[in-house]
Design a protein that fits this description.
By secondary structure, this protein is an all-beta fold. The chain has no helices and eleven strands.
Length: 122
């Protein structure tokens, strides 16, 4: 099972982008979804936003008030709406999730997408 991340691109500071993340394969849902980013020249992926449960969502301090993580009602696609983008948001963004079947059986723990590049110019 792989996650497919998309929506990256180049945007000017102050602009917006929306990233999407979906599991390959039909009738699969995303559980405990997170978005991470890796800044060019660094080795670590840093958590940007995460849905821990239907009631618990975490954001990194650097993106609070600007980024919004969401998941569609079928829970098979997750999004990261990024507004008021800054040059320091430039990074490769990755989605991460546990993937389940319709009956709740986990088919993949800690699955990662391939990454999508976001470039914010000043």
């Amino acid at each position: 099972v792989q996650l497919q991340a998309s929506g990256g691109g180049m945007v000017q500071a102050g602009g917006s982008l929306r990233l999407s993340c979906a599991a390959s394969g039909s009738a699969l849902s995303l559980k405990a979804v997170g978005w991470y980013r890796k800044v060019p020249g660094t080795a670590e992926r840093v958590m940007v936003a995460a849905i821990i449960s239907d009631r618990v969502i975490h954001y990194a301090d650097s993106v609070k008030g600007r980024f919004t993580i969401s998941r569609d009602s079928a829970k098979n696609t997750a999004y990261l709406q990024m507004d008021s983008l800054k040059p320091e948001d430039t990074a490769v963004y990755y989605c991460n999730a546990d993937v389940t079947q319709s009956d709740g059986t986990v088919v993949a723990w800690d699955a990662w997408g391939q990454g999508t590049l976001v470039t914010v110019s000043s």
